[in-house]
Amino acid sequence: MGRTISRTQPVFMNPVIFIGAWVLLGTLFALQEWLNMRRWGYEITAYVEFEAWGTQFLLWGIISWLIWRYLGSMVRNAKTLHLFTQILPLSIAMSVIEEMIWVFFFPHLPLRHPPMLYWRRLGFHLRAEFIDNMVIFWCAFGLFRGISYYQRFREHEKAAAQLAIQLSHAKISALRMQLNPHFLFNVMNSISSLMRIDVDAADTMLEQLSSLLRITLERGDVQLIPLRDEMEFIEIYLAMQDQRYAGRVKQTLSVEAELHDALVPAMILQPIIENAYAHGLSRVERGGELVVDIRKEGDQISARVVNSGAGLQADGTKSAERSGVGLANIKTRLQLHYGAQSKFFLREIDPTHVEAAIWLPLIFSANGNSNFTGYGE
């Protein structure tokens, strides 16, 4: 039965607000009774009615708030047996105590009765109002139980949301870990191929790979990063591909300046560009084209990657089969970050051009801390 208020308290349980609401309720009852008395022909001043009812409900407001404050745990957690062994005796005691205090302050009541000693007046009022007092107490008890159930519901809801966010973090981290070795394996294959035909180009690619690994390590577990940081990674990766393909591909990169500080999932574009080279540009002997265009569209960012080369149906394979680890990874990460607020598609523009496009919400970091998942935040 100790004092236990570990939960965040509702605003209306502030003592001023809570007790004030009780007094207001008493005032409304006083007004109703005064109007009824006048209609029935009784002459009684409004002051007496408002004073009596206001004081009664002021006392109940104070008593109820003190019960919530100091016996809240008992009220919230009372089982059926406790209702009879603890709460029922408490309700009787509080009903009597409230009446004792009220009778002390109103020695002139009841009106039109000869003067009575305190205990006789107390007995008179208890016979008239004990049931009403019990009803008031159990109404307050019901209110407190309702608040308790609501708080528990919100706590469970909040815990479930936190677990969902933690699960999203875990899944995204796992997907990021899946991308790194996949990306590293492909780059090392490219360097191995270059070593046989252009040692200087292979050496340059090793330096560029070192820069990419440094960037990846510095990011750590950060999930959302400024677009400018993602583009720094992409520019180095494109430079590596330019070394490998030795001028066979013309690269065009366009980013609207106002989007440089927008938050995007880390390493979201590299798998798309890698896919463009692996399934399209690698089949082009000369005159290949790669266009990366990132712009604002309403309250979203659109990122389009268009490449020339073989179309989606060129070798009889379906687009879903050609998406590989990287693109499947992107779809899952976008769903975890943004849910239905993001879109991704891969389509054939014509038999020699393929477009991959992403739409995601336009978000800017308010505090410079981007280590979060956007979905469900």
Tell me what you see in this structure.
The protein is of the alpha+beta class and 377 residues long. It has two domains: 11-158, no CATH class; 197-361, Histidine kinase-like ATPase, C-terminal domain (Heat Shock Protein 90). It is 61% helix and 13% strand. The chain has nine helices and seven strands. Strands 2-4-5-7-6 form a five-stranded mixed β-sheet. A two-stranded antiparallel ribbon has the order 1-3. β4 (288-297) and β5 form a beta hairpin. α3 (80-105) crosses α4. The protein is rod-shaped, with a radius of gyration of 37 Å. The model is unreliable at 1-6, 316-322 and 368-377 (pLDDT under 50).
Short précis:
By secondary structure, this protein is of the alpha+beta class.
User: What sort of overall outline do the alpha carbons produce when their principal axes are compared?
Assistant: rod-shaped
Largest sheet: 5 strands, mixed
Distance between the termini: 37 Å
N to C succession of SSEs: HHHHHEHEEHEEHHEE
| The level-1 CATH class of the largest domain | Alpha Beta
Strand order of the largest sheet: 2-4-5-7-6
Measured as a percent range, the helix fraction is 55-70%
Number of strands: 7
Q: Rg to the nearest angstrom?
A: 37 Å
Key words describing this protein structure:
single chain; 377 residues; alpha+beta; Heat Shock Protein 90; 2 domains; five-stranded mixed beta sheet; two-stranded antiparallel sheet; 9 helices; 7 strands; 13% strand; disordered N terminus
